[in-house]
Amino acid sequence: MSTRFPSARSRCVAVLCSGLLLGVVAVSPAKADQQFYRCVVNGKTIYTDKPCDAPTLPGVEGSSASTSSNASGQAGKPARAIELDYSTPYGIWRGQAQYQATSKGQPIREAHAVIPLVIQVEKQGRVRGASPENGCKLLGVAAPYMAPNILTLDVTLSECRYTALNRRYSGTLALYQSSNSVQFSLQSINVASAFIGNVGHFDIKATMRR
């Protein structure tokens, strides 16, 4: 019985066909229902099929739901899980925030954005936060309201790329344990322009979670 081996020509044809097949797959269009995300990484806008990383604050842990994959942690320090505590409005919150501004009752397109926001509310009352995509940084104080699940906020925004957003705001942070979330709301009115009939209104809203 004889064994037949493919000729060199046959092997070349097979390799060529495989290469063509891979090329077709590589240039095939994305699925019609595939979702893409607009993210800002190191100041540059990119598009990806994975959700954008949530912003972080200096000295604040990353994702609240994450745990260290190294049982001993880094530099020999014990790893610890971060408890998702939804019994208090204090702590770290993250979510998509909507920034809006109006002038003479008309929305200002340059100010409008729906982007990730992270805030930290300390039990001592200090509040800080950041939305890196539009440059806004938040700093102020929180105080207990009539109900233990609601805090009043008095904060100032700075370094926003749309400079009119850089001002003092008042608002609330309300915890809803039924949905494990807080409703974050800030508002500011440009009182100085009210005397000339050009009332400017600014507001920021978000539903946030740990």
Question: Can you tell me about this structure?
Answer:
- This protein is 11% helix and 41% strand.
- The protein is built from two helices and eleven strands.
- Residues 11-33 and 63-82 have low confidence and may be disordered.
- The chain has a domain at 85-209: Lipocalin (Beta Barrel), CATH 2.40.128.
- The chain has helices at residues 8-27, 191-194, and strands at residues 37-41, 44-48, 91-103, 106-107, 113-121, 126-131, 136-144, 150-158, 168-176, 181-190, 200-209.
- It has an eight-stranded antiparallel β-barrel. The chain has a two-stranded antiparallel ribbon with strand order 1-2.
- By secondary structure, it is mostly beta strands.
